[in-house]
Amino acid sequence: MIALARCMKAHRQYYRIDRCQIAFLRFILEAYDGLAAMQTLDPKRGDVVIYIARGCRDDVNGILNDLRKTTLMEPIEPIVDDPLILP
């Protein structure tokens, strides 16, 4: 699991992706060490949250926009009972 302290300082973006692509997306994001991390919220539906390090949003959005060319990825509403959401 992702360290709580690091995630609290990160921007969050929620997506529904093709279930078969969850591991692929995680590996891509992890390859950019320190840029972003991903957590699977609902593996059956493909709901994930991407934690983006401060100052890295443009870089991550560039990566995600490129991946959208080959991967189903649609933004979803934030999960309101996510314990990592700050008030």
Briefly note the structural class of the backbone: alpha+beta
In DSSP terms (H or I, runs of 4 or more residues), the helix count works out at 3
Helix-strand string = HEHEEHE
State the CATH topology.
Alpha-Beta Plaits
**What's the number of extended β-strand segments?**
4
In the CATH hierarchy, the architecture is 2-Layer Sandwich
Low-confidence stretches: none
Query: What can be said about the biggest beta sheet?
Result: 4 strands, antiparallel
Mean pLDDT across all amino acids: 85
* Quaternary: single chain
Describe this protein's structure.
The structure is a single chain. By secondary structure, this protein is of the alpha+beta class. It has one domain: Alpha-Beta Plaits (2-Layer Sandwich), CATH 3.30.70. 30% of the residues lie in helices and 26% in strands. It contains 3 helices and 4 strands; from the N terminus they run αβαββαβ. Strands 2-3-1-4 form a 4-stranded antiparallel sheet, with helices on one face. The longest helix is centred in the C-terminal third of the chain and has 11 residues, at 57-67. The chain is globular, with a radius of gyration of 12 Å. The two termini are 21 Å apart. The model has no long low-confidence stretch (mean pLDDT 85).
Brief summary of the model shown:
With 87 residues, this protein is an alpha+beta fold.
Q: Mind sketching the topology for me?
A:
Layout: H1 4-8, E1 11-17, H2 22-31, E2 36-42, E3 47-52, H3 57-67, E4 73-75
Antiparallel strand pairs: 1-3, 1-4, 2-3
